[in-house]
Amino acid sequence: METMNQLPKSYITECGWLRAGDPTDDLVISSRIRLARNIEGIPFSQWASSTDLKRIAEQTRKAVSNSDHLHNPDFYAMEELEPLDRYFLAERNMISRELAKSGIERYVAISPDQTSSVMINEEDHLRIQVLMAGSNLSRVWTQIDAVDNELEDHLTYAFSNQFGYLTACPTNVGTGIRCSVMVHLPALVISRRIDKVFSAVSQMGVAVRGFAGEGSEISGNLFQISNQWTLGISEKETIEKIEKLLEHILGQERKAQEKLFEENRCQIEDRVWRAYATLRYAKVISSNEAIELFSSIRLGLNLGILNKPRYESLNEMILKVRPAHLQKFAERAFTAAERDEFRADLIRRWIMNGDS
Amino acid sequence: METMNQLPKSYITECGWLRAGDPTDDLVISSRIRLARNIEGIPFSQWASSTDLKRIAEQTRKAVSNSDHLHNPDFYAMEELEPLDRYFLAERNMISRELAKSGIERYVAISPDQTSSVMINEEDHLRIQVLMAGSNLSRVWTQIDAVDNELEDHLTYAFSNQFGYLTACPTNVGTGIRCSVMVHLPALVISRRIDKVFSAVSQMGVAVRGFAGEGSEISGNLFQISNQWTLGISEKETIEKIEKLLEHILGQERKAQEKLFEENRCQIEDRVWRAYATLRYAKVISSNEAIELFSSIRLGLNLGILNKPRYESLNEMILKVRPAHLQKFAERAFTAAERDEFRADLIRRWIMNGDS
Question: Do B315 and B249 lie in a common domain?
């Protein structure tokens, strides 16, 4: 398994994990699980010496290359990747923003289909992640559990019989699992019922975040719903609980959409068609505005106001309009102004092609 | 000359004065002159008894019906017109908002081509007005001067050899003339140079107002430029002065447009195309938003970004989207929400027809 110092060209056009799972889901963009793992007898990354970090990397790399379920992954050293490539991977949710900042002895292994990755020397020695489109936590769990078991054949994880897996941050101790589902909830936002729904679920130990993850602003009515508990509850129970809450939230959103369309049909049609119009005719579009407009387009698809683009194509555009993606696609660096023009151009061609 | 109690149907589709003059002017929407006149020996309207008001109306009506230059005008009693019809006339700038509020013995005579009108018992006994599209003060003056002379054959105006025409408000004493030119100055607004330009011209006795006249908010980058002096300066000098200042302001606007397009081409194209997109696809548009969007369309025509609609058609739409016009056109009363939907519909059909 060679260490690669640049991303394959195919990454630019193919957002692998967006094609796995269920890309046609109307309300759920993606399902993700990550496991936090550490190797017994070596300090957590933050306190580890460079020799320690090297040992972690060597052991993990060996384990990773032997994993059947990772299908001979690509292996990248953060230090050897261009900053643009690192930010590209972060935008695509294959690595964390933290890892994208680079640093010594930091790596990621990515399966060829882009659904599975193992970050090395992030907050924990290993952060295993599996990501798929749509609402698919069970299938994601099957994959990540298999990878985790394979890695454990070659690594001795730090584990306590009392607490479970030991992790750098106490919030992960136990199963070390985080399940995240990215959902689109425009009607709950428009009808101002989102806070009520979220305060109800947060009392059940569920965190809600903006779509770029921890600390990020909410935008485009996209939200990440994830568990806050890792202790005293099994992985399967965690997944079941999240899935049950998800079902509840999606039910609320569907009801809110129906009600909104019944009571404010004209305003909703106006919002959808104005978004379509802007995407089709604007010459300058910021990343944030694009995400907001895509939200209205998705709502238009949900309500049958629009019959294209496909959800899969819309999901891909949410990634493609982001800064690093745009620059990789254009194969050149941009000023901020050029970026907004290029983005508008890309979007216009996409809308005009109907469904690219 | 019968008193009519409803407007002719042709008013709805034909904005007469917008077709007279120069409807193809790129920056000037309209030129208007009004003269304030009072009949000698009768108190100003505000202090006149109902018998006085009746006398004014009778004398003026007779004079008006004898005017060749008014071409057998239509004669309306405010009290007998539906409120909607009165507001329609005010929106079309044929009568003042003050007269549209109705009141006893208030009338207006309107020439069949809608360019000339005489209001009776407004602030002054007579308010004579001529209105044409484009930059046409001289032609407007020729017409209004002819009407004024004809009326004077039948009426004895209150006139002082020292001051000139006597008027209810001291600001009109002298010539009683107000010349107003409605101009569109988007580039001066966008480049934030408008205040500088206006403060320069206001030192020369010129007033600048929003497009609906006195006290109105500025919208759609439309401004009314008019003289503030009526004393110690002849009508022709007044017109020459306004025309000279107008030329200066229009020159500044043209320079600002060129500079803007040179330095921010993409932003300007973006603004124009977004306006086009919204007009084409929105399902709900307020009157104010429409006026703002039309401004961007006009700028697009000025800069050659768009090649339709024609200026004449755009000028007409500025009138047609206003509340009373819309309701006359639909032949029914609207709620505010229905009005915004109907407006969006009207605009969409207009844009799609290319140039209606």
Answer: no
Instruction: Look at A281 and B269 and tell me if their CB atoms are within 8 Å.
Output: no
Distance CA A345, CA A279 (A): 9
Residues ≥6 apart with Cβ < 8 Å to B161 = none
CA distance B280 to chain A (A): 8
**Are both A67 and A192 inside the same structural domain?**
yes
| Across B279-295, average pLDDT | 96
Q: Are residues B143 and B291 in the same domain?
A: no
Are A284 and B273 a contacting pair at CB < 8 A? Answer: no
Cα A18 to chain centroid distance, Å, stands at 10
Asked if B150 and B183 sit in the same domain, the reply is yes
Residue B191, domain extent: 3-255
Residues B65-84 have a mean pLDDT of: 95
Q: What is the CA radius of gyration of chain A?
A: 21
Q: Are A147 and A70 in contact (CB under 8 A)?
A: yes
Same domain for B173 and B35: yes
CATH number of the domain that B126 lies in?
Answer: 3.30.590.10
Query: How far apart (Å, rounded) are the C-alpha atoms in residues A78 and A75?
Result: 10
Q: B213 and B70, same structural domain?
A: yes
Domain boundary among B202, B230, B255: B255
The set of residues, in sequence order, having a beta carbon less than 8 Å from that of B204 and lying 6+ positions away, is B241, B245
Length of chain B measured in residues = 356
Question: Crossing angle for the helix pair A323-330 and A83-91, nearest 10 degrees?
Answer: 120
Position A159 in a domain? yes
- Asked whether residue B313 is domain-assigned, the answer is yes
Task: Name the domain boundary from B255, B282, B306.
Answer: B255
Would you call B284 and A267 a contact, using CB atoms and an 8 Å cutoff? yes
pLDDT in tens, chain A (356 residues): 778 888 988 888 888 899 999 999 999 999 999 999 999 999 999 999 999 999 999 999 999 999 999 999 999 999 999 999 999 999 999 999 999 998 899 999 999 999 999 999 999 999 999 999 999 999 999 999 999 999 999 999 999 999 999 999 999 999 999 999 999 999 999 999 998 998 888 888 888 876 555 545 558 999 999 999 899 999 999 999 999 999 999 999 999 999 999 999 999 999 999 999 999 999 999 999 999 999 999 999 999 999 999 999 999 999 999 999 999 999 888 898 899 999 999 999 999 986 54
Residues A6 and A82: their CA atoms lie apart, in Å, by 7
Interface probe for B, chosen from A268, A269, A273 (most Cβ of B below 10 Å), is A273
Q: Is B276 on the interface with A (CB under 8 A)?
A: yes
Task: Decide if B59 is inside a domain.
Answer: yes
Instruction: Please indicate, yes or no, whether residues B55 and B138 belong to a single structural domain of this protein.
Output: yes
3-state secondary structure of A88: helix
How many domains does chain A divide into?
2
Domain identity same for A92 and A204: yes
